[in-house]
Amino acid sequence: MPELPEVETVARTLAPQICGRRIVAVEVLNRGSWQGTAAPEEVAALRPVIRGTGRRGKLLFLYLSQKACPLPPEGEEIPVPDEASLWPLFYGAQGVEQGRPPLEGESPDEVTALAFHLRMTGRLFVYPADTPAEKHTRIILDLDDGRRVFFDDARKFGQARAVSPAGLEQWDFWKKLGPEPLEMTDEAFAARFSSGRAVKALLLDQSVVAGVGNIYADESLFRAGIRPGTPGRALSRQRLAKLHRALVEVLLASIGECGSSIRDYRTARGDVGAFQNRFFAYGRAGKTCLVCGRKLQSGRVAGRATAWCPHCQKD
DNA sequence: ACGGATTCCTGATGGC
DNA sequence: TGCCATCAGGAATCCG
User: Fold this and answer.
1) Residue A121: nearest nucleotide (C-alpha to C1')
2) Is A304 a catalytic residue?
3) Which nucleotides of B are covered by protein (CB under 7 A)?
4) What pLDDT, in 10s, does the model give residues A254-280?
5) I need a labelling partner for A55 at 20 to 30 A (CA). Which of A63, A209, A221, A291 fits?
């Protein structure tokens, strides 16, 4: 299921394929997959240029413009810098261009981006001209060179919407979205965990911190030595700082391996990620702890399947 | 107001 | 082999 590292990878692998191209048609094959107030026909009528791609939390953005912009060099990969302070990145035709492009436009109603939430099974691929829709294709963006961007989503939970400054103000999810884990200080992170809710429930809450899902919640808690059910406010500043550092470490390591492919997730080039081979906790309930050799415990925390080591992780 | 439970959806999986 | 029940999961919504 695409979380922060997977969405970042999709943004990075999508950009060289579509930057500089105009969207000339938007086909919505499943009504529920398109949200928001701006209609798909409205976007198509603008014939917008895709300036670049990026991410905020688990939201994937295609940044749009009315002005032409250059095409990327043929067949070149976008290098990814190591500095955590640069995230989230903006991937444009020339590679990594800036920290984060503005979503503001000339007017409040100007459509300045398409936002995709992939949820569990959403995928974005670029196909040659005339490729017909597949069984799970929900939205197709036709580009000016004939190629087609497919939004495939088996479970129909994913969604796309056209974003304008005025539209953003009416989008609850966007307004409540918490800060990026890669942009916060340890202190700012710790300050958001003063609730009595389970620390895992807080990690999964997008208004507390943006981009974490079940995989990176379990993995960061394991690496920080914290049991998932522990109330946030029972944890010391030091342990929360350790959790923040573990989270950043695991997110960056996963981005470095193009994310985790459990079942459906693929990059925008159709490749699987490799970080699923580095899991210590997620999906390993009942198996042997890779650190101490004891059996990993399983349970449900915050309504999610959860695995942890009763020896390596403490309340 | 807060937080836990339920709901949406469909493919994969396991038991009989 | 085939069928049915169960599970997975993010976030909106329902409910106590």
Assistant:
1) C9
2) yes
3) 2-12
4) 998 888 888 888 999 988 888 988 999
5) A221
